[in-house]
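Page 37, top half.
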Amino acid sequence: VEAVVSDMATRIMPLREAMDGLQAKYCLAYCAAVALIDGAGGLPQFDDERVLRDDVRSLVKRTSVRADSRMASGAGRFGVELAVRTRDGRSLGASVEVPRG
């Protein structure tokens, strides 16, 4: 998994890994990984026990996050481009400028 985000996003969410639910809220790699696995990003995904499960921790290790100053930022915009390479070799991707919430 590769996430390209704005500089602002990496300042707001600076953690590379999370050891509990509070840290997970500030870890872009965790948020991307758990959303891909669970298909959700609600309260259950930020439970301390969920943060420490092997499936999400493994994907976090294989998730890179990098800032790109060209990404939309400010005035409610937080641009992100997400690319995923699946085990069977497929490449999937998506991008947004304005997050849903």
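Page 37, bottom half:
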Amino acid sequence: MKKFIKPIILVIIYFIMQGVAGAIIGGIALVTNPDATNAIQIGDANALTKIIPASWLAFSVIVSGILTVLIAWAMKLINWKTVFRFDRQQASSAWLPIIAAIAGIFAIIVLEEQLQLTDILQNEFADMMHSALGVLMICVVGPIVEELCFREAIMGSLIRKGTRPWVAILFSAVIFGLIHANPVQIVGAGLMGIIFGIIYYKSGNIVLTTLLHILNNSFATISALVFGKDATMSDLIGGSTVAIVSGIICTIFCIAMLIRYLTHTK
């Protein structure tokens, strides 16, 4: 059980850093914009989020994320010698996890749509997507920070201390899902955490998982900007039935490719 103490402390720190950053930005908004005070007094959360610039929110998330990574490093949860190591042997078999993850991400998107879970952060993310700093946070900084924290610092530290790989994978995936604190993202992020966890376990670094994470977030951002925030995968590929069938096929394909990656690569 001692193995889980530091990872759990890091998760708590992650939450605290995000909360402190949000509180600071909210405090600045209160001081600089009288309308923010009125929004709080009448309990209008939507008005308050519109008053706080998206770039401010993005900047606060970036800073809090970087500080969390530095704390994880200070706690000796990150092995910088291997975290970005990627050799020719790994590159030669990289197509397997990449294809598996892409298929899995597609299936997860379809599942999220069919579950019709509430997206409480849709407006905030939509605003950030129209900010250069917001796009940088969503598509680049966010994925790097999350892979360093959840795959390397949490899952990696557990495995290095002798925890069974499947326990470490499931633990980090569940935490990864819950940390998003958004119903529509909890299931999707949790399942994605399992896929990324398997890839991280086999490769021993976050190179592939970070690239795939960036790809996923970039696709979501581009889709929202081009087709609108309410566009669904079903709309894009020809209906709900087509999406469900495609999702099932992609799920089977993803599992098959991950098994091949685990059993047929060094």
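Margin note: Residues 224 and 230 are 7 Å apart (CA to CA).
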